[in-house]
Amino acid sequence: MRNIGVWLDKEKAHVVTLTAQGEDFRTIPSELEFYNLKGRSPGRFKWGGTQNVVHERKYLEREKQQLKAYFKNLANAVEDADALIIFGPADTNAKFRKELDENYKSISARIKGVIKADSMTENQVSAFVRDFFKMND
User: Fold this and answer.
1) Cα separation of 112 and 53, whole Å?
2) Per residue, what are the HEC states of the chain?
């Protein structure tokens, strides 16, 4: 039996693998670029002056492509799971679930839960995964 738990956000993912031989913990970085859009207009707003144009669509499209690559790395890391749990803050875990549903149906079928969870230390992540699979076995 190979149970895997994945805690993820946009910065990194912690993958905990539980087998009969023991526990394996590894961290997969996302390599997403974080954009800090800054205006180039003068400090005071002038009516009729030039306005700063931000091409947000370009940044969002780039982030979308980077997320797709990040999720592909995660899917490769969990493809041999017998059971999978995904948890983490924000909505990155739901986006990962959606990506698995659309493009990795064999992995998606093994998902036992998608849970919202706050930021955790590595020890808390490992304990969460162990407790989840103890209660659901």
Assistant:
1) 44
2) CCEEEEEECCCEEEEEEEECCEEEEEEEECCCCCCCCCCCCCCCCCCCCCCCCCCHHHHHHHHHHHHHHHHHHHHHHHCCCCEEEEEECCCHHHHHHHHHHHHCHHHHCCEEEEEECCCCCHHHHHHHHHHHHHHCC
d(CA 127, CA 115): 15
pLDDT digits (tens, 9 = 90+) for 88-127: 998 999 999 999 999 999 999 999 999 999 999 999 999 9
Residue 113 φ/ψ, nearest 5 degrees: 180, 150
Which pLDDT tens digit goes with each residue over 76-86?
Answer: 999 999 999 99
Token digits of residue 117? 């969870």
Token digits of residue 124: 């808390």
